[in-house]
Each structure stands twice: as C-alpha cells, then as structure tokens.
Amino acid sequence: MLRTASWPRWGRTLLARGLGSRRGGSAPDQNGKVSEIKKKIQSVLPGGAWNPLYDTSYLPPEHSDVVIVGGGVIGLSVAYWLKRLEKPRGAIRVLVYSRASTVLSVGGIRQQFSVPENIQLSLFSIEFLRNINEYLAVVDDPPLDIQFNPSGYLLLASEKGAALMESNVKVQRQEGAKVCLMSPEQLRNKFPWINTEGVALASYGMEHEGWFDPWCLLQGLRRKVQSMGVLFCHGEVTRFISSSNHMETRSGEEVTLKRIHEVHVKVDHSLEYQPVECAIVINAAGAWSGQIAQLAGIGKGPPGTLQGTKLPVEPRKRYVYVWHCPQGPGLETPFVIDPSGVYFRREGLGNNYLGGCSPTEEEEPDPGNLEVDHDFFQDKVWPSLAQRVPAFETLKARSSWAGYYDYNTFDQNGVVGPHPLVINMYFATGFSGHGLQQAPAVGRAVAEMVLQGHFQTIDLSPFLFSRFYLGEKVQEHNIV
Amino acid sequence: MAAPRAPLHLVAPRWNAGTRGIRGLSRAAAPEGNQKKGRSLLQFLADRFYDVQALREYLLRKQAWKMHQKNRFQGKEWIRSNARGHFSLDFLKLQTVPVEAVDASGCAVNYQGLDSLLALKELQVLWLQRCPHVDDWCLSRLHPLASSLQELSLAGCPKISERGLACLHHLQNLRKLDISDLPAVSNPGLTQILVEEMLPDCKVVGADWARGLKVGQEEQYQDITSPIPA
C-alpha cells in the first residue's frame, strides 16, 4: 500500500531533524504544527482523503482492504479480531453502518443449546465478557461495566420435550457448561413463585449464564476498534462491482467464480455514492444480510444449483415488553423460558420485568416497521405468564419495543464462512436471536478464516454456507 | 478428626510498638502506661511534621498489607502466619483434616483463585472482607459450597454489586451474611430487603434499610422511629 511507503517516513525524519536544529520556540506549539504538516502530507498521497476540487471528508475512503457491511456487535467483533489477529502490517478496514439490532436485544447469554458448536461459542463469549477490560482496554478511557447478572437461565420442558432436554443437558455438560436438571418438586422448593403444572423437567444453568447490557458491549467494541484504526462510515451499500471467472472443476463441471472488486456506498439522504475498492467483503448486516447477498448475485441462478441457492436470512420482528409487578418473583429470578416459548427476566431492583414471546409462523408480524403490537401481549404473552407465575396476574405493562431477528429460515443457526462461488464474500449472520451472545467468538472465527483460511480455535464448519445447497440442517432445538 | 471442638475465638494481633493495627482498634486489650506515653509523643510529632506522619502511615500500611491468611480446622484454633509471614510446619500434619473456616480478608483472591477455595467441601465460614478483586463473577462461583457454608462476609469489597448478591440464593444453609459497606451496590437499603427475602433463614447484616428512607417533617418524625414490620 502506497500509504506506508518510504516517502512520508523520510519526510517525517527530515522534519524532525529540522526541529532539532532549532532552539527556542515553545515545544508543544512546534509539535502541533509538525503533526498538522504530517497529516496534510499523508492525505495528499494516493489513498488519503484529500481532494483538491471539493470536500469529500464525509465519504468513505476510496480503497480499503476489508469492508464490513454492518456495524452491529457481530461486525464490530469481526473488525476487532481482524485487527488483533493480523500480522504486524496494518490493513485498513471500513465499516458501512446503516442499522443495528444489537441495542434492542434483551441481552441474555446462555450455554443451554443443543448444538455443541453453539455451546462452545457461548462459553468463549462469556469468558470474553468476564475479561472484557483486558480485551477492550483503551488508554485513558474508563473501564467498561457491562452490568452482568449471573442469575442463570431456567428452561422448562413439558412431557414431550423432557427426553430431548435430558440429551441436550448431557451434550452441554460434555462441553463444559454447568447445568443441573431439576424435577418439578425441586423447582417448587427453589422457586416457590413458579407454578409447575405441565412442567416435567427443568434445566438450570448455575454458572456462566445470565444477562448483560448489550449497549455497553457495543460501545466498548466501537471505542476499541476505533482506537485500533478501523474507519467508520454511515451509508448504504447499493451495488457490488465484481468480475467473473469461468473455471472447470476436476470432474469437468463448469463453475463461475465471482470476485467482488468494488462496493458502492451511498450516502444517506443524497444520491451521492462512493465506490470503495476492496479485497474482502464481510456480510454482517444482520436482518438485511439477505438483501446484501442478493446484491452480490448470490441466488441468481436456476433453483437447486449452487448458483441458485439464496442466503435464507430474513428480518423477523420480535417484541419485548416491560412490566412492573410488586409481588413478583424476587432477586434470585433467573431468565425463565416456558415450554410455550414465553420468556421473561428481572430488570433492576424495582420489581420490573421484561420478556416476550416468539410468535408462530402464522402470526409473524410484518417486518416493514418497528411498531409494537400491544394486543399480542394481551392475547398471547400475558396469559402464559400468569399461568406460569401466578403473581403476574396483577402486572402492569410499562413499555415495550420491537427489534429484528436475523432469522435463518433454514435451520435457525448462524452462517459463518466464505461463499463457495463469490470467493471474497464472508458471512457472519443468521443467528436468529442469539447473535449477541456468540458475537465475540464468531468474530474470532471469521477473522481466523479470513487471515488463515481455516477455523483454528472453534471449528464452525457445520455452519458454512454450503449446507444450504447440500441440505444438511444443523437444527438448534433451544431457540426462543 | 474426632477431637472435641475447643471454643474458637480470634486472638487480637500483636502490637507493633508505636503503631496501632487496624483490627486492634476495636478488640485490643488496654495499652500499658509507657506505651501510651510513647504513642502520644509520636502523635504529637505526627501532627506537626509531615515526615513523621508519613512514617506512621507507612508502618500502618505495612502491617495491614501482610497477608492474614488464617485457617481454622475442625477442632483446632486458627492457624495463622507468624511475624515473618511463615506458617509453622505442623500445618502439613493436618492435611486430611477438613477445613472449616477461611479468613481471606484483604487477600488478592480473584476468579481463578477461587478454585482452591471451592475444593474445600466442608467449609462453614468464609470471610472475604475488603478483597479488591472479588466481584459478581466470583460470587456466581460459590454455589458448590451450598451444602456446608453457614457464614459469609463480603463487607467492604469494592467490586460487588446487587447483581452478584442475587446468585447467593444457592447457599441455602447460610445463616449469617454480612453485606455492609459495599460501594458498588446502588441502593443498599433496598438490596438488604431483597436479600433478606431471598434468604429467609439467614441473618443479613449490613446495610441499614431505614437509611434510604427520607424523613418528612419534624412532626412526622415521631411516627417513623420504629421500623415498619415486614
């Protein structure tokens, strides 16, 4: 890259020598002037942001090694690990940020999954969160407090799901999660406010599970990633310019490999766009990754072939409601997930709770906007809550919000890794509601894939894109 | 070990001539006459010269900084280090005896360091006062001690908040819990009430819940003198 070529370094030493030969003059003043001159010289060189004709400082730069589409927790985590794991040569990254669902999340983290890779991802992420001030420390900035509540998750199962829950718990224990199984009687002894009718078995996470503040994690990542030299910009990706290469596989089949050369980023509220030349594109656009994939030409082809396999991620709207209940469950309340799909957790010291429910396929709300449907709470969520926790019959709804799941319609698990045909697009999306709790580990996995070509610490090969074409589902049973 | 349990009391720490140990402030025997005179001379000098004050503070800090790792075994008294911080070798003969009480106050125990404490299956008393690195994550690790732990003291730990206190409900045999002086707890009075509700058999000492209440006017003060029964 011309930016780090020898000329500016030589220029810098020349200036320094010139400074040393002068005596007198206030030192900080001279330092300020010198750094200004250095900045001007660097911006004039090719790759810098200086344009002699008009001001282009609000546009993304013209060249970048990696473009990450999506500035939520997954995108920032990928940027962080890329900068952390790269060999000493600094490569520039650009983030195109449009919208993020991270801050609308309820913020829970658990290891009670059925797929072993999900459990490993979550275990690493909790270790990351515990040592967050060592990972994300920035000089002169205050330490982060993610307000972690280690209260654990309580998953309840009816008769039908009891056998599945037992086998899941066995897998979880093998991977190292601390989960214990409880019978309805033990449940009543431990949590007297629960009504155990219809519950055959419960699994309770004792350690490494709970909830935290996702906004704080996002800010921490953002701050650290900016200090590592990643560039942020606001905009929308409108186009990919790519080139195709017709090749033959060993068995004689014809394959068209595509390579993205430019990303066109359109500025908000304007028709202006900037073509960003890049080497690698990472699709971490969350609920909108399907649209981004379509722009790159993924899925354009006869159905049933690899070219025709679309990225099956679409936005799904989910509601979260906050209510107050003075006689509700006490300080020890874990994150409770009912067999009907309703979940809730405590919030703070003031007997406030928040929770919600995933609607069935027929009741899916329209993801066009983020308007909250209050009738959904009255008809579907409240009755189940009152049935499970009788104290919730006298609750008072306080507020609510809605957010998007990046829902993977194929098997509700994440898509991680490169696309087999568009060779420089990597995915990190489709987590269907548990992206936040896996973000640090997924970021590391994608960074390893980009820098080394294979997964090193956690093997996420079951989560590659090719499973959509081959039809291999990695079904996660414990999704809310 | 089938030895009968002798009454177990904490013995006051030894005196360092001229300085006061922080523990000694409340529990010490009355000083002798000449020591008192020596101390008041030092006090007089310390009030007037910064150097003497700094020397006194240094000696005080040095004494407080010694790792007071005291352990109490079943039937025995507290085992603590001598003046130089060394343990006596009888310690090694007691390897098979279950440890009953651990006083790790002021120690730099952290999340990984708790591994050694959690291996003690019959621990009844655990004091973690003023430990600078004990935080909510450490508290979530204490659940393996649920069957035996009866007394827990977390007074003065700067990193513990009410979120960590929520995971103490696993410790069902707890009878005495000290949560005084926790600076990171946002609402000590309310937290005390919630923790008392969470652990009904336990005596929770620490935050005075009436402190958070605002006194209205003078006339109303007489009505609010006694706490409202729960």
Order of helices and strands of chain A: HHEHEEHHEHEHEEHEEEEHEEEEHEEEHH
* Main pleated sheet of chain B: 7 strands, mixed
Tell me how many strands of chain A there are: 18
- The secondary structure category of chain B is alpha/beta
The ordered H/E elements of chain B are HHHEEEHEHEHEHEH
Please state the structural category of chain A: alpha/beta
Overall 3D shape of chain B: flat
Shape of chain A: globular
Sequence of strands across the biggest β-sheet of chain B? 2-1-3-4-5-6-7
The main β sheet of chain A shows up as: 8 strands, mixed
The helix count of chain B comes to 8
Which protein chains are joined by the largest interface, and how many residues does each one contribute? A-B, 15 and 24 residues
Q: Tell me the strand percentage band of chain A.
A: 25-35%
Helix and strand layout, with pairings?
The complex is a heterodimer of chains A (480) and B (230).
Chain A (H helix, E strand, L loop, with lengths): L5 H15 L6 H18 L18 E7 L3 H13 L7 E5 L10 E2 L6 H15 L1 H4 L17 E5 L4 H14 L3 E4 L1 H7 L10 E5 L4 E2 L2 H14 L3 E4 L1 E13 L5 E13 L6 E11 L5 H7 L17 E12 L10 E3 L4 E6 L4 E6 L16 H15 L7 E13 L6 E4 L6 E5 L5 H18 L13 H5 L10
Parallel strand pairs in A: 1-2, 1-11, 2-8, 4-13, 11-18
Antiparallel strand pairs in A: 3-7, 4-6, 5-6, 9-10, 10-11, 12-15, 12-16, 13-14, 14-15, 17-18
Chain B lengths: L23 H4 L5 H16 L1 H16 L4 E4 L4 E2 L19 E5 L10 H5 L6 E3 L8 H5 L10 E3 L8 H4 L10 E3 L9 H11 L4 E3 L12 H4 L9
Parallel strand pairs in B: 3-4, 4-5, 5-6, 6-7
Antiparallel strand pairs in B: 1-2, 1-3
Helix pairs in contact in B: 2-3
Please give a quick description of this structure.
The complex is a heterodimer of chains A (480) and B (230). Chain A has helices at 6-20, 27-44, 73-85, 116-130, 132-135, 162-175, 184-190, 214-227, 289-295, 374-388, 435-452, 466-470, and strands spanning 63-69, 93-97, 108-109, 153-157, 179-182, 201-205, 210-211, 231-234, 236-248, 254-266, 273-283, 313-324, 335-337, 342-347, 352-357, 396-408, 415-418, 425-429.
